Amino acid sequence: MSDDSRLRVTVLGSSNAIPRPKRACSAYLIEGGGRAILADLGSGSLGNLNAHGTAESLDAVVISHMHADHFLDIIPMRYMLKYGPRSNDKKVALWLPPGGEEMLRRMVSAFVPDSTTDFLSEVFRVGTYDPEHGLEVGDLKIRFAPTVHYIPTFAMRCDCNGASVTYSADTAPAESIVRLARETGMFLCEATLRKGGDDSEPRGHCSAREAGVMAKEAGVDRLIITHYPAEFAAGDLVDEARATFEGEIAVADDHLAYRIV
Predict the structure, then answer these.
(1) By the 8 A CB rule, do 215 and 223 touch?
(2) Which of 10, 39, 63, 81 could cross-link 257 (Cys pair, CB 3.0–4.6 Å)?
């Protein structure tokens, strides 16, 4: 992993809940100021992390919400940290949304039903973040905003040394996301839905066109479309977003990296 003081984002998982072939679900490696965090850790993303660094060199994992395509690889990461080759015994901070720790501990109790071993705390420092107050990981400052989704979900904005990236997590169009992303250097926004945003009520996702609307309203420098299914062609996603946003647009894919200045 980079020790560069500038902000860098590497996509480790760009799929929605149904992974595209040879692609993982949501995960984004954010590095800056000599620190490294993961925003989400969806299914399949840990293997991609291994191509860019090691789990033990992470300073924190921050989970937006407790849907499997955003947190499931916490389980294999636990095994990697406990049994894989390591150069230190540092525990990685694992920050969960309100209510997330209780749910996760219920789930992992199935793996060690008769053991006194704390399955998670052997290798993680487990905590619950307060969305109202944010987090600081060295020079990385993380703020949160509630999204419009089916369960409590929090978008994240990470600022470091004058650069910023905002990650929408899962959301329908929301003013809270626009406020959080205001004038951000890069806006990672989901585009789960086909053109027209024909999600069922209540809304929980957005289209590329709607991502473009939020990017325009927030005045962001660059829009990166992510969390999309296999049947969506990258060019079509860009065309949809271009109808509502005139700035730089790209489509995320696993292992792509972006430097934010």
Answers:
(1) yes
(2) 10
- Separation of first and last alpha carbons in the chain: 18
pLDDT tens-digit series, residues 235-247: 999 999 999 999 9
Residue at token pair 């406020």: 179
Q: Which runs of consecutive H residues, i.e. helices, occur in the chain?
A: 45-49, 68-71, 74-83, 100-108, 175-180, 208-218, 234-242
Q: Point out the residues of the chain with pLDDT beneath 70.
A: 1-5, 114-116, 196-200
Residue 109: burial class (beta carbons within 10 Å; 0-12, 13-18, 19+)? exposed
How far apart are alpha carbons 49 and 69 in whole angstroms?
A: 15
Smallest CA-to-CA distance from 131 within 167, 104, 155 is with 155
> Which pTM does this prediction carry?
0.95
Tens of pLDDT along 128-149?
A: 999 999 999 999 999 999 999 9
3-state secondary structure of 177: helix
Q: What are the tokens at 256? A: 């792509």
CA gap 258, 261 in Å, rounded: 10
- CA–CA gap between residue 131 and residue 110 (Å, rounded): 29
**Residue carrying structure tokens 């419009």:** 148
Triad 64, 52, 54: Cα angle to 5°: 75
Rounded Cα–Cα distance for residues 195 and 123 (Å): 43
Q: How far apart are alpha carbons 212 and 249 in whole angstroms?
A: 9
The structural domains of the chain, with segments of one domain joined by +, span 7-260
Confidence at residue 92, expressed as pLDDT on a 0 to 100 scale: 97
Q: Which helix (H) or strand (E) holds 53?
A: none
Whole-number pLDDT of residue 232: 94
